[in-house]
Amino acid sequence: MSHKRLTQLQRIAEMKRDIELGRLARLAMAREGLTQERQRLQDLTRQAARDGQASLPGAGAAALFACLTENRDGQIALEQARLEAEIARGKALAATAFGRASVLEKLSREARTAEKPPRPTET
Length: 123
Description:
By secondary structure, the protein is mainly α. The protein is 89% helix and 0% strand.
């Protein structure tokens, strides 16, 4: 295969690699956002429980809030599990794309070297 063609393929592979790495970064950011939301809900639930200890209506409101946050926490856990599966898939795709780009870079470099005419040697 010609150096020119290998260089074109290498550029395409690099773009694919960059796309996969960007996708993986976005998934990781989404996972971090869910982790932070889950932590905020847990903090709010603990605060509501402390605040609810002062009165019976407050305790009822705290219990209701705990049920609502437990429901949301379950939704977040499901979303985190889905994201973890996507991240695992994304890591595999990024690794493949990275490998392809590396191999094509090496092949392109070798083809460029092979296409250069040998330098005359002086005797």
